[in-house]
Amino acid sequence: MEQENGGVAIRLEGAGKRFGTRTVLQGVNLSVAAGEFLSVVGRSGSGKSTLLRLLAGLDTASVGRIRVDGKAAAQSRDDIRIMYQDARLLPWQTVADNVALGLKGKGSQVRKVALEALEQVGLSDRADEWPSVLSGGQRQRVALARALAHRPRLLLLDEPLGALDALTRIEMQALIESLWRDHQFTAVLVTHDVAEAVALADRVILIDQHTISYDLDVQLARPRLRGDADYAALEGQLLSRLLGKSEPHHQSQAA
Ligand SMILES: Nc1ncnc2c1ncn2[C@@H]1O[C@H](COP(=O)(O)OP(=O)(O)OP(=O)(O)O)[C@@H](O)[C@H]1O
Predict the structure, then answer these.
(1) How many whole angstroms from 48 Cα to the centroid of ligand 1?
(2) pLDDT in tens for each of the 255 residues of the chain?
(3) Is 252 inside any structural domain?
(4) Nearest residue to 14 (alpha-carbon basis) of 48, 65, 52, 62
(5) Is the CB of 191 inside a 6 Å radius of any atom of ligand 1?
(6) From residue 214, how far is each of 2, 205, 209 by CA, in Å?
(7) What is the CATH number of the domain that holds 232?
(8) How far is the CA of 54 from the centre of ligand 1 (A)?
(9) Residue 159 falls within a domain, yes or no?
(10) Does 229 map to a domain?
């Protein structure tokens, strides 16, 4: 693989998003360092996917400023990849061709890049099969490979593991973490799973009442042990905030 370019920094200043008269996000201020792993949690409908779409440059802020690598997100599109809960693979293309989608260059070169990406997600032996014969977890691995093939400097993950069983989910979390460590891209993960948010992120933000209502540093050694008291304390702290309790019951343990 070619030299990685490292992650991009993100900066939001007073960013807001309205759809007609409905305010979804308002007064969002956020700085994400290059190479940081940020998780975003919040109630259903709080605006998490909207935030991700703004970062991807797929939509524009109604007010405020959003900068990805110092530019408008839409101008950083080549550096950004987004992954969703459903893999969105083309059923009439092989696994390798799905990974190669959108790559520029000669056929042999493009295939080489696709195979390298598949190898990184442990699926090089399935390159010439159809997506329909893969399991849900394997399809998500292909989606991850498709993103990696573009060497993203910002990987946006919109509840990518939400439809997977618990064990596959934990394996995928470990894969995402190791790819993030190897490639040093910036990662923003939207998840409903507070344990997942803590497992992966350097920092977790909570979206509530249209803005960032809580910003939690996760200073735990990696890889993280879920049974660990510090881990459970941070998870409890986040859950309390999410549920709207003013005094997180685990706060004293986390201090
Ligand atoms: N294109 C759009 N037009 C109108 N309203 C929209 C549009 N996109 C999102 N919304 C509204 O914005 C709000 C936030 O939606 P969003 O999908 O960002 O929430 P979310 O936190 O990701 O929710 P979930 O966790 O359920 O996926 C919702 O009320 C939604 O209906």
Answers:
(1) 8
(2) 445 678 999 999 999 999 999 999 999 999 999 999 999 999 999 999 999 999 999 999 999 999 999 999 999 999 999 999 999 999 999 999 999 999 998 989 999 999 999 999 999 999 999 999 999 999 999 999 999 999 999 999 999 999 999 999 999 999 999 999 999 999 999 999 999 999 999 999 999 999 999 999 999 999 888 889 999 999 999 999 999 865 444 443 333
(3) no
(4) 65
(5) no
(6) 38, 6, 11
(7) 3.40.50.300
(8) 12
(9) yes
(10) yes
Tokens representing residue 156 in the block? 């946006």
Atom 28 of ligand 1: nearest residue by CA position: 45
- Using DSSP's 3-state secondary structure scheme, residue 84 falls into coil
Residues 6+ away with beta carbon under 8 Å from 187: 7, 36, 37, 38, 154, 155, 156, 157, 176, 180, 200
Q: Which amino acid residue places its CA nearest to atom 3 of ligand 1? A: 19
Q: Is residue 162 part of a domain?
A: yes
- Ligand 1 within 6 A of CB of 44: yes
Q: Which residues on adjacent β-strands are paired with residue 41?
A: 206
Quick one: DSSP state of residue 125?
G
From the CB of residue 75, how many other CB atoms can be counted at a distance below 10 Å?
A: 13
ipTM over 0.85: yes
Number of structural domains found in the chain: 1
Q: Do 185 and 35 touch, CB atoms closer than 8 A?
A: yes
Residue 228 is encoded by which pair of tokens? Answer: 């660990």
Which residues constitute the domain of residue 68? 10-88+152-243
